[in-house]
Every structure is written in structure tokens, then in C-alpha cells.
Write a structure and sequence with these properties.
This protein is α/β, with parallel strands linked by helices and 262 residues long. It contains six helices and six strands; from the N terminus they run H-E-E-E-H-E-E-H-E-H-H-H. The longest helix has 70 residues.
Length: 262
Amino acid sequence: MEMKKRLTLELRNKKPGEVKELVLDNCRSDDGKIVGLSSDFENLEFLSMININLLSVSNLPKLNKLRKLELSDNRISGGLEVLAERTPNLTHLNLSGNKIKDINTLEPLKKLPNLHSLDLFNCEVTMLINYRESVFTLLPQLTYLDGFDADDQEAPDSDPEADGDGLEDEYENGEEGEEEDDDDDEDDLDEEVIDDEEDEDDDLEGEEEEDGVDDEEDEEEDGEDDEEDEADDDLPRGEKRKRNLEDEGEEDAEEEEDDEDD
């Protein structure tokens, strides 16, 4: 894909001034030069142009806010003074896999006071005797060369400010906070469920007690009726019949009174 077309796709209907990161890896440059990129990308902080067959950075526009520039696996052999002129705040520069052969080719980088990290992996210059000592002497502002400092201490995997890791950490912390809130909500819900179950158990126990009382009352009433029946059974046959007749007479008398009232 051509660089101009790739630029259009990467913009995604944004204005150049709104873009902070731009990746143009593996696209095709025109005659080994940068095309389509302009100073309208005034807020650009990260630019990656890996493996685009680049021969020169002479067409690089003025990018005052650019901090990290990836140019690995191209065919750049010199002309680095353009970087000092047009990317004055550069902190990270990756030139690994290019055609840099001499220490003197790096001398223009002395004008980049904020240059913190420089990568030259797989460049011929790394085969020179005292290569590391010579580069650190030439560029005293450097902290890391090819991923290690002057004392051979390895650099961190990434620069939080350059890669935006700080934002990811905040996001992760926010998620953890939300997860903790969710756990608290779940605990509250569990407690409410337990309380509801205990209330239900109390209600059931209360109903069982009431049922027990009602059953006892019913049993007492049944017991009284049974005692009356047993008392009647104990009476002599004549007495029992006499009582029955008296009961019937009382019922007939009540019915006659009702008829007279009518």
C-alpha cells in the first residue's frame, strides 16, 4: 500500500492536528522518501515507519512534539541532521537494521538534547571496536544504547510516558475499583438474602406455633365432646332415653315459639 493511501486510512476522518500516534509500517515510500506527511501533524508524539524502504529522512516535516521515532529496517545511511532540525524534542530513536557504518554519521544527534534512547541493532557500526564507549562519549545525553546503559544495565521494557502505559494502569485501577464495588454489592445482596431467609424461617416457625395452638384447642374441644358422649353412654338406658326426649321436647318448644312469633 502506498504511503499516501495508508495515511488516509490511519487518519480515519480525523484532522491531522488531532493525531498523536501514527503507524505507517510496511507501506511503500516513493523513491525512498517520506510522502504525505506534513507539519499539520503538529501534535504528533509517536511516529513509526518500519520497513518502508526509506533511504532518507530529508522529507520529514517539522514535528516539534514528536518524542519517539521508529525507523528500523530501512536503508538510511546518513542525513541525520534533519532530525535535529525538525524533531528537536525527540527522546527515543530507533535506527536498527539500517545502513549506518560510521560513528561520525551519528554526530548530528548531538543537537538532540533530550535524546534518551538510541537503537542501532544490526547496523554495521555496531561491529566497530569500542563501539559502545565511542557512542556514549559522542552522545553524552544518552541513557540507553541498544537497550542497555553505560554500565550494561538493561533498560525497562517500555517508557510509560512514551507508550501511554500510565493510562492503562489508571484504567486497570478503575476496573479493580469497580470489581471491588461489585464484590461489595454482591456481599450486601448475600446479606439481604440471608436476612430474608431468616425472616421467612421466623414466619414459618410462628405459623407452626399457631397451628400447634389451634390443634391443641381442637383436641380439647374434641375431648370435651367425647367426655359428654362417654357420660351419656354411662347412663342407664332409661335415663339416656329420657334425656333424649327432654332434648327433643325443648327443640319442639323452641320451634312452636318461633311459629307463634311468625
